[in-house]
Amino acid sequence: MAFQLISVAILLAFYGCYFVKMLRQKKRGIQTNQLGKGKVGFVKFVELAVRAAALLVFAAGLISILIGTSHSPVLVRVIGAVMNVAGTIVFISAVRTMGDSWRAGVSTTDQTELVTSGIYQFSRNPAFLGFDLLYIGTLLMFFNWILCALTIFAVIMYHVQIVKVEEHFLLAAFGDEYLQYQKKVCRYLGRKG
To answer: Which domains does the chain carry?
Structure first.
């Protein structure tokens, strides 16, 4: 029961941050959710797959939490809880640091700035890292094969979004400034050289 309560609290904090940020941006006329909007071809496919993966893994995770069964040893479940907390802290920090430049998906119509301060000094994609930690942590706490498959699918789709969509967009939008940033900071975690 303790793992269920921890997980529900973490989900409320994580997705609460997400939706509060979206509502605040909407009040200022900013469309946060850009997944699949105004896109064509491969980019549209990837962004719609990311959206589907996020919804499916959230639903499977929530059902797994509510059912509460797991065959994972207690230590594995504790590691999962720590990953949940870490993922939430990383995600909230990323969203706060991005300010009004934060979007879900790329926007070719909104002009944003390249954010390289705060947590972005240590990860080029901390919001994605936060999602990955949350999903994997939930999987470790409430393991089942459906949740496992959907977690793997979501993590892969987020990676494809980063490598095939976001990085190409950022390179086109910010050119050499992004290249220099890319040379200094790792995709997920760490600094280079």
So the answer is: 2-16+38-184 (1.20.120.1630)
**Taking 80 as the threshold, does the pLDDT of residue 102 lie above it?**
no
Distance CA 26, CA 149 (A): 34
Type of residue found at 109: T
119: DSSP letter: G
Cα–Cα nearest to 23, from 14, 32, 15? 32
- Stretch 64-89: mean pLDDT: 93
Tokens coding 63: 């059902």
Q: Which of 126, 117, 113 is nearest to 162 (CA)?
A: 126
Contact yes or no for 76/140 (Cβ under 8 A): yes
Q: Is the pLDDT of residue 109 over 90?
A: no
Cα 158–Cα 131–Cα 9 angle in degrees, nearest 5: 155
What is the rounded average pLDDT of the residues 21-29? 87
42: pLDDT strictly greater than 90: yes
Residue 106, classified by CB atoms within 10 Å of its CB into exposed (0-12), middle (13-18) or buried (19+), is: buried
pLDDT for the residue 56: 97
Which value, in Å, is the radius of gyration of the alpha carbons in the chain? 17
In whole angstroms, what is the distance from residue 193 CA to residue 188 CA? Answer: 15
